Amino acid sequence: MTDLLALAEKLIPTVRAAGAIELKYYRDGADVIDKADGSPVTLADQEAEALIAAALKDIAPDIPMVGEESVAAGAIPDISGGRFFLVDPLDGTREFITGGGDFTVNIALLENFTPVMGVIYVPVTDALYYGADGKAFMSLEGAAPQEMRVRAAPPQGLTVVASKRHGDPEGLQDFLKGRSVDTLISRSSSLKFCVIAAGEADLYPRLGPTSEWDTAAGDAILRAAGGKVTQLDGQPLVYGKAEQKFLNPAFVAFAA
Length: 256
Known about the structure:
Elements: H1 4-10, H2 12-28, E1 32-34, E2 40-42, H3 43-59, E3 65-67, H4 68-72, E4 84-91, H5 93-97, E5 104-111, E6 114-122, E7 127-132, E8 135-140, E9 146-148, E10 158-163, H6 169-176, E11 181-187, H7 191-197, E12 203-206, E13 210-211, H8 212-224, E14 228-231, E15 247-248, E16 251-254
Parallel strand pairs: 3-4, 10-11
Antiparallel strand pairs: 1-2, 4-5, 5-6, 6-7, 7-8, 8-9, 12-16, 13-15, 14-16
């Protein structure tokens, strides 16, 4: 399977179907369970991941899937070949639980442990983002997809994206010292990558912990739109760290 954009487009019905499951629970209310690490999970997370797993098995049966909920249940496939899917069925669970709209469905494909394709869907707003092979697209409210590219840094200063629910204001302030910043905005979930890919923001420093399924789809889309994601020392963000429970170090996503 070499046409990664075609694969991304083939996955659109899957992320929409997962989003429909989440919207049902979002509107009707969802029971919250605490996982072993203290993070919340709902039936919406679990049912959406089951749907995605079945779809991926049908579409690409030879590619293993690493999913947030399956890993929490102890199911980790052999990914030593470096080619696998990373899935976060409901990124932004706390946002979902509290009635916010910034939660997403994330599917990424990795090759040689590098994100090469990503699909992100926002159920509440029916916004879709996807990218691969140097091209990234967004579709808002079912409209025809429009190509996205990152922007050059505006002369008036950067628009910086911060996490709405996992912020480190003091650390962020230290990180931004010496940079010309015009605006600071807060978003949840993988939407922080999407606003940079869409040319609406410039920089997203993440100084606190995340997991690989939180970042892989956004990483792939941002790369396809011309941006980058690196560790704070400039080294690439590394994926497939099963022995480290798929945890990411601090990183920065940026436009140019």
